[in-house]
Specification:
The complex is a heterodimer of chains A (194) and B (495). Helix content of chain A is 26%, strand content 44%. With 194 residues, chain A is of the alpha+beta class. Chain A is built from three helices and eleven strands. With 495 residues, chain B is an all-alpha fold. Chain B has a two-stranded antiparallel ribbon with strand order 1-2. The N and C termini of chain B lie far apart (57 Å). The chains are: A alpha+beta (194), B mainly alpha (495).
């Protein structure tokens, strides 16, 4: 029974880790506390001092349109000199809420850039964030499973802490946990399974 | 016989399975200590500040109007983007090399570790846990706060292992079926909220250890008699608990009642009295020592402000909260744990037994900003209900033994009532003061030994044929709950 239970657990884990979805490459750390900007299309909203993280292929925004279909959206990211880092757009007609705007892929992080959102005609339009700054969540290109994202997670996991193992810290902890599972299973078999 | 020889003898008397359960808990909580980003265990910021101030000044932080954090910690929190990430489940921790370089620069900077010390939410807590952590903080070779944070978190993990061992020993006193000891202790070892909290810098870790040791000490005394040595042990545990975190005070009346019942039950009664005196004496000495330190060395009120504030609040004094009558207090406390009765005023916009205690026990992490999807809690409820019913059946099956053991049962009930009552007492005042909810599932973790006993009762109620299988299945469920909780936290902060 214990073996069957473990097998079921491993299958469940595999199913969860194989789930594919768009994954985050970072955000501008602005919380979505409320309305950050109210526009009436066509209009534009620019934000200075942003960073586009490495491996970015889209941006996710929270928008409000008072129940109407969303207007066409275009996003342009520029360096201080005006050179375009990336750009992209989403057609009109989508629902309000979270909107993903695909952009040309950015491989290296681009700090200190200007992010402009161009809103097509379509009435009142709200962007969310805090203290007048819009929350931007940057997404990695395409869709990935947790397993595909594992090297990236291991890299992020290694940062901002005491860590002599670098990106190997996460696999090392996984092994440690597996050892605890193995010990627990052995103990249960010995003490409970008699 | 030397003390060392005696300790070896005691350790040798503990079944190997107990040590294995403790070791498994140590590994699991160590993983939690790394999985949770720095400062993302509830209130860890102020607990680290307390440890740092204690290490630098050998005193609790107690400066009115002073900064909460030393420069080193304050700048590190900023570099880690802690203010932007805490409470915002859609924002991970630092992800880029450039952010990591900023953290390294702060760590390498010559920043003061001793210019904090302002009064914060935990300043009125006793210093035993912080003193313990201070020793490790100072013994860590590096000066970096992040390096030291790992060391002090690992002390908490070690305390979690001790808690699990005491739970195992408590189970050994309660149940004749040896396999239930392992089942109960492993259910605790993999309990994700216990692992998450114990993987951080928080006096809760020592509170849980002291509570588990108290349950074990009393259970042993109820079965084998109250000897002077056991009295001393229980007194020591009471002293450690009271000096670890003030929440432990809620368990003391029940423990004292238990000690009193043990003396009353003893035949002849007179030889048991010195044991009671030993327990009370150790607790009294610890309390006197703490009062003396507060008054003579740290120049603050006798109990550091904690118990005084609670007493003033209770009597509606100057710092108290006016307008909380007994009826409202009882109504609030009742609804905290049970469905509202028709004549009661509605105290909550939600159903605390489910929203706070059940969901919180299944798992809410970070500073209460990381939770599973709604469906997970529903599935967990569907699994938990039969187990709770089975545990109740197990109790019913043992009703004659329970009647015989009424003094012990009364002791546990009083300890539980003390803890639940104290949460209700503090909760309504905190809500009136701040407008925020006070209750968190971790406040119930001092009752982990009873949680383990409930697990064992459920398994035993399944009968001779299925009991062991159900026990193994419960351990597997706990293990699954633990690993999915760790994945949830990893997804929240790093994906």
């Amino acid at each position: 029974m214990l073996v069957g239970g473990f097998a079921l657990l491993l299958v469940t884990l595999a199913v969860v880790l194989a789930q594919s979805a768009p994954r985050s490459s970072g955000s501008n750390l602005v919380p979505e506390l409320g309305e950050a900007a109210k526009l009436r299309g066509p209009d534009r909203r620019c934000q200075e001092g942003e960073t586009v993280p490495a491996d970015t292929g889209a941006v996710r925004l929270l928008i409000g349109t008072y129940g109407r279909p969303a207007p066409a959206l275009r996003l342009v990211v520029q360096r201080p000199g005006g050179r375009i880092v990336t750009r992209g757009g989403a057609p009109a007609g989508g629902p309000e809420g979270r909107v993903d705007i695909p952009v040309r892929e950015v491989e290296q992080a681009e700090p200190g850039v200007r992010v402009c959102l161009l809103v097509g005609s379509g009435g009142r339009f709200v962007l969310y964030g805090a203290a007048g700054r819009v929350h931007y969540e940057w997404l990695r290109p395409g869709s990935e499973s947790w397993l595909e994202l594992l090297p990236t997670i291991a890299h992020r996991f290694a940062l901002g802490r005491w860590n002599p193992l670098g990106p190997l810290l996460l696999p090392a902890l996984a092994l440690l946990l597996a050892a605890a599972w193995f010990s627990a299973a052995r103990l249960v078999l010995r003490e409970v399974g008699r | 016989m030397t003390a060392l020889h005696r300790a070896r003898e005691v350790a040798a008397g503990i079944p190997a399975a107990g040590w294995w359960c403790a070791a498994i808990a140590l590994v699991n909580v160590t993983v939690w200590a790394f999985v949770t980003p720095p400062f993302h265990v509830p209130d860890e910021t102020v607990h680290v500040a307390y440890v740092q101030h204690f290490a630098e000044h050998a005193a609790p932080p107690d400066e009115p109007g002073g900064p909460a954090f030393a420069s080193q910690q304050a700048l590190l929190l900023d570099a880690l983007h802690f203010p932007q990430t805490v409470g915002h489940a859609d924002t991970g921790t630092i992800w880029s090399e450039s952010q990591d370089d900023t953290v390294d620069d702060v760590e390498a900077g010559d920043l003061s570790a001793g210019d904090g010390g302002g009064i914060v939410s935990n300043s009125n807590q006793p210093p035993l846990f912080y003193a313990l952590e201070t020793g490790v903080y100072l013994a860590t070779p590096a000066d970096d706060l992040l390096d030291r944070l790992v060391s002090v978190r690992l002390v908490s993990a070690l305390l979690a292992a001790m808690t699990t061992l005491f739970v195992f020993l408590f189970m050994r006193e309660l149940f004749a079926e040896a396999w239930t000891w392992t089942v109960g202790a492993l259910a605790v070892a993999f309990q994700p909220v216990f692992g998450f909290i114990s993987g951080g810098v928080t006096p809760d870790a020592l509170l849980f250890t002291a509570s588990a040791a108290l349950f074990f000490g009393l259970a042993r005394a109820f079965r084998r008699g109250l000897t002077t040595r056991r009295g001393l042990g229980i007194g020591l545990v009471l002293a450690v608990g009271v000096l670890a975190k003030l929440n432990f005070v809620a368990l003391v009346p029940g423990a004292l009642l238990g000690l009193g019942l043990l003396v009353l039950r003893a035949r002849p009664r007179r030889p048991a009295l010195p044991s009671l005196g030993a327990a009370a004496g150790v607790l009294g000495l610890a309390a006197l020592g703490y009062i003396a330190l507060n008054r003579l060395v740290w120049d603050r009120s006798a109990w550091g402000g904690g118990i005084e504030a609670a007493a003033t609040t209770a009597t509606g004094g100057p710092a108290g909260v006016p307008g909380i009558g007994l009826t409202e207090q009882l109504s609030y406390s009742w609804q905290l744990y049970l469905p509202r009765l028709p004549f009661m005023s509605d105290q909550f916009a939600y159903f605390p037994p489910y929203e706070v205690w059940f969901r919180g026990t299944i798992g809410i992490f970070g500073w209460l900003d990381t939770s599973f999807g709604v469906w997970v809690y529903r599935v967990a409820l569907a699994l938990a209900i039969p187990l709770v019913l089975l545990a109740a059946l197990g109790l019913w099956q043992r009703r004659s033994a329970l009647v015989q053991r009424w003094p012990e049962l009364l002791t546990w009930a009083t300890m539980v009532a003390g803890l639940l009552g104290s949460i209700g007492f503090l909760g309504i005042r905190y809500r009136t003061d701040s407008g925020f909810a006070f209750e968190q599932a971790r406040y119930l973790l001092p009752l982990l030994p009873l949680y383990a006993a409930g697990v064992a009762l459920a398994a035993l109620a399944a009968g001779r044929r299925w009991g062991r299988q159900l026990g193994a299945a419960i351990v597997l469920l706990a293990l699954a709950q633990g690993v999915f909780a760790q994945l949830l936290v990893i997804a929240r902060f790093y994906a």
